[in-house]
Amino acid sequence: MSADQAAHPRRILVTGVGANPGFALARSLTRLGHTVVAADANPLAPGLLLPAVVPQVIPRADDPHYPHVMTRVCRDLAVDAMVAGIENDLPPLVDMAPQLDADGVRLWLPDAASVRACIDKAAFHQVLTEHRIATPRTWRPEAIGQVPDGTELVVKPRRGHGAQNVHFVTQRDHARVLCELVPDPLVQERVHGSEFTADCLVDRTGRASVILRRRDLVKAGLAAVSSTFDDPVVKALVVKTLGAVQSRGVSCVQGFVPEDGAVTITELNVRIAGGFPLAEAAGADLVGQMVNGLFGLPIDHDRLTYRAGVFLTNYVETLAVGDVAELETRAAARGETP
Q1: Which of 106, 204, 214, 323 is least surrounded by Cβ atoms within 10 Å, i.e. has the fewest?
Q2: What are phi and psi of 218, to 5 degrees?
């Protein structure tokens, strides 16, 4: 495939457009001239209302009809490639990869073992520990009694995302109670310091480009204010983390830099980050190079450099208001089931 073919507009399906990562990715791809099939299980997902997208209501990823529906949507809408904007879609898409490839639909994900290691926080902790990468101490609910006295804790879902059902406590007894309420819980040591996200793109040879962003103000798990920075120690640990899980394609790594400078990695998401527009504002062609990789073209790492000291602020805006019944009528006309 030539560079001219890479610049050719594509038809790309983005899932999870109700959340920040999928929403921002759909908007970025349309700005680059691609046609976006914006997909979400919620008929009121904001990404379905973006101008110029082809909205598509789909089943939840845990619905047994998900593979059949997604395969049909890709065929009916002549989709060239698919990108997951939310972790829930990853397991079924990994299983569907051979069928999607046979249908000519591009999907750029690491192998199944790598995906599992990233979406399962217990498995991720094990991989990082084996590679001697600093990460918070972690306990399963049945091992809460082993938590040292005075340890600040975080109780979270083992396979959660988007800061949902995440609780901070200072006592083991409180963590024990929360483990009865949080689905499939995990208990981790709480880490303090300067929180960061690394926007990452790893090509098929394993070479990685990393853009670092401080999460200067975090609200409900999302960075309301962030700024780019450069730190060779942080960057080296992020690259080591990507190698440990054998990451490929686009992803984001999160962690903390405590006052003593000992960098700690907390998670790796096999998707683009919600705050990636800052990386692009700082000069990194993240989405453009992701599309190149998606279609088997070389990644130009020189176009993934960035300027430190660039900031971004987010705010909540009203995208649209309207009649729910009208949306349901439109969805029914497209053969969808809200």
Answers
A1: 323
A2: -115, 130
Of 231, 191, 174, 204, residue with least CA distance to 108: 204
Q: Which domains does the chain have, with CATH numbers?
A: 3-107 (3.40.50.20), 137-189 (3.30.1490), 192-313 (3.30.470.20)
Q: What is the mean pLDDT of the chain?
A: 91
Distance of CA 95 to the CA centre of its chain: 18
Please give the DSSP secondary-structure letter assigned to residue 144. G
DSSP string, 192-251: -SEEEEEEEEE-TTS-EEEEEEEEEEEETTEEEEEEEE--HHHHHHHHHHHHHTT--EEE
| Chain center to CA of 71 | 22
Q: Is the pLDDT of residue 211 over 50?
A: yes
Q: Which two tokens stand for residue 30?
A: 């349309």
Single pTM value for the model: 0.90
CA distance 45 to 42: 5
Q: Which two tokens stand for residue 243?
A: 């190698």
**Beta carbons within 8 Å of 28's beta carbon, 6+ residues apart:** 276, 277, 280, 287
**Distance, first Cα to last Cα, the chain:** 38
Among candidate residues 59, 52, 89, the one with its CA nearest the CA of residue 73: 59
